[in-house]
Design brief:
alpha/beta, Arginase, Chain A, six-stranded parallel beta sheet, two-stranded antiparallel sheet, about 35% helix, binds zinc ion, repressor, transcription regulation
């Protein structure tokens, strides 16, 4: 595994998906000036309770988006087979609006980059919330298939993603939604996950995968109410990796913070083919944070929600989804001529000796090259 510092995406990168006025707003807004903005402006960009303004918001967006974008560029140029950006995965953000703690949709921007070199991209979302922002962005195209496994109920955010929500026009049948009820367990979830994704792979033959690994689908999440263990969540990640398709892995939601760290540490191990020791190393910088009782990587979850997903309910979803996939007639392809330039200067992105971080996690060089080209910034 090679560790790299997040490069910074430019405003031009963000505008590949987001509207000019929304990106300009994010660039300018701060806790010091937000009160001087009109209610109409803030409401228009959906800034408020779920998506507050805080110091450093724009830098945060540029950094996590830069990580996903560089991941896409590395896959495009076959510099990596699998790239992880746990800081990315903000799947709710819309073209002109923030939504559900997400301001910039790094996933959409990364997929747009992947489409320069890949005919078909598969997006898989195992966050407990519907991946609505990504689906909406690609709802009309057959070049991206979005598959979201999520809790569904009109009272549960964002309230979209029922099993009849399948995409529109050229994208009809290329949005797959798997709406679940509270309390789903490892066995039901992983079985359904593999059945659906295998069906998708068979009919769609994706050339690249983006996997959003929101950790709020774990048991004991403060907002979620599934009964999924670290092993169940991780099994979906490891199984997807085993398909051998170039993959960008991103984070997402997760509101019991210690478990988010556990989940993604465990899955980083799985993605490099290792099952990490369950005992956290005492030399770990944050060892005491996980104490005093639970110094384990994968234990400590309680499975307390009644499983409302009956066999009949899950069977009905499976039948409906597989029936829709039968309508996908062969893998669509396009002429890949005149590929647009990379948004990052790829010479800089791939000047690896300057950007590697040594195994202890420290930068080898304080003057590290970030791949960020200031000339691209407005
Ligand atoms: Zn979520």
């Amino acid at each position: 595994m090679e560790m790299r510092r997040l490069p910074r995406a430019s405003s031009a990168d963000l505008k590949r998906f987001h509207s000019e006025d929304y990106v300009s707003f994010l660039e300018k807004v701060s806790p010091g000036n937000v009160d001087s903005m009109t209610m109409d402006t803030l409401a228009g960009f959906s800034i408020g309770e779920d998506c507050p303004v805080w110091d450093g918001i724009y830098d945060f967006c540029c950094l996590y988006t830069g990580g996903s974008l560089e991941g896409a560029i590395r896959l495009n140029h076959r510099k990596s087979e699998c790239v992880i950006n746990w800081s990315g995965g903000l799947h709710h953000a819309k073209k002109t609006q923030a939504s559900g703690f997400c301001y910039v949709n790094d996933i959409v921007i990364a997929i747009l980059e992947l489409l320069k070199y890949h005919q078909r991209v598969l997006y898989i979302d195992i966050d407990i919330h519907h991946g609505d922002g990504v689906q909406e962005a690609f709802n009309l195209t057959d070049r991206v298939m979005t598959v979201s496994f999520h809790k569904f109920g009109l009272q549960f955010f964002p309230g979209t993603g029922d099993m009849y929500d399948i995409g529109k026009e050229s994208g009809r049948y290329y949005s797959v939604n798997v709406p679940l009820l509270q309390g789903i367990d490892d066995n039901s979830y992983t079985t359904l996950f593999k059945t659906v994704i295998k069906g998708v792979i068979d009919c769609y033959s994706p050339e690249a995968i983006v996997l959003q690994c929101g950790a709020d689908s774990l048991s004991n999440d403060r907002l979620g109410n599934f009964n999924i263990s670290f092993d169940g969540h991780g099994e979906c990640v490891a199984w997807t990796k085993s398909l051998g398709i170039p993959m960008l892995v991103v984070g997402g939601g997760g509101y019991t913070l210690k478990n988010v760290a556990r989940c993604w540490a465990n899955e980083t191990g799985l993605l490099v083919g290792e099952r990490l020791d369950d005992k956290l190393p005492e030399t770990c910088e944050y060892y005491n944070y996980f104490g005093p009782e639970h110094h384990q990587l994968r234990s400590g979850l309680e499975f307390k929600h009644e499983n409302q997903n009956t066999k009949e309910y899950l069977q009905a979803i499976k039948v409906e989804v597989l029936e829709n996939l039968r309508q996908v007639k062969g893998a669509p392809s396009v002429q890949m001529q005149g590929v647009p330039e990379d948004f990052f200067n790829s010479d800089r992105v791939f000047r690896e000796e300057e950007r590697d971080i040594d195994e202890s996690g420290r930068d080898e060089d304080e003057g590290i090259e970030t791949g960020y080209d200031p000339s691209l910034d407005d």
